[in-house]
Amino acid sequence: MNGGAPQAVLSTMHAVFLARALYVVADLGIADLLADRPQSSDELAEKLGVAPIPLRQVLRAVAGTGLLRSDDQRYSLTETGQTLQSGHPTGTRDMVLTMQGPMFWDSLAVLPERVATGRTGPEIAYGAPFFDVLSRDPDAVTSFNRMMIATQGDEPTAVAEAYDLSWAERVVDVGGGVGTRLIAMLQRNPELSGVVFDRPDVVEDARAHIEASGMADRCTVVGGDFLEAVPAGADAYVLSRILHDWDDETCLRILRRCTEAMKPGSRLLIVEKILPDGDEPHLSRLLDLIMLTVTGGRERTAAEYRELLAQAGLTVRRVLATSTAASVIECV
Fold this sequence. Notes:
By secondary structure, the chain is α/β, with parallel strands linked by helices. It has 16 helices and 10 strands. Helix 1 packs across helix 4 and helix 1 packs across helix 5.
């Protein structure tokens, strides 16, 4: 091959710099400053107390993504760029700040050592697993929870539409975060009630999110550790984006806590992006790298999920595709 590096390699290397520029825009709160009117890079630099020329270079790079619009050296937000504002319901700014923030960035920097030693990025960089490091900073926990809203996108609605829960009366979302997935299920099934079960440091954010959704009368929040026990006696249990965070041994602990809580007739619903057997592009491949870098978990193929679930005494009844990259694995 002649003519320099392949375009796929060049694009990947360049994307690292563009992602970092986007982090600067989010970290400085540029979208909040542009909410009312367009401003020049000099105006923004003066308000922020930063160097104007480097800021201009960052802004024009990010404008190429369609998040900003430049007109006579004045910048404004596009409709997509408005998602970078603080408190936007998509959680986009929190996603950028978390995924390009210190813990993710430091973990990525030590990826060669991660591969060489088997220790996760946070364990190498901070001396503790990801969720332990995260829990040290309440603001980081809140930002992470909002990031999960951003990364889920349409997935909660797609799952609620793909899987019929009309047979169930009560569902427990194990590791349910702020309740986005369960809220979608409740909205789809008017007779359903539910429980969001997650770490105690997530409980207050979950209650606030559920209250804002208008579902507080049908949904309760319980704090706890799913490695120890989960609320018992529900018709359905949901593990959405949980198993991919953990190695097989820890996954088996989580699954066994769920089977202990299940009653006769209960079903366990696992929502994950299943790795394809071939080499075709799939979002699960990128998520697999993130899990490798940060949590020590991994994405799995359908066969790997079946084997893991069988070890926990669970049988896969069916695997349902959704309109997103996620699938629902129904187990009994």
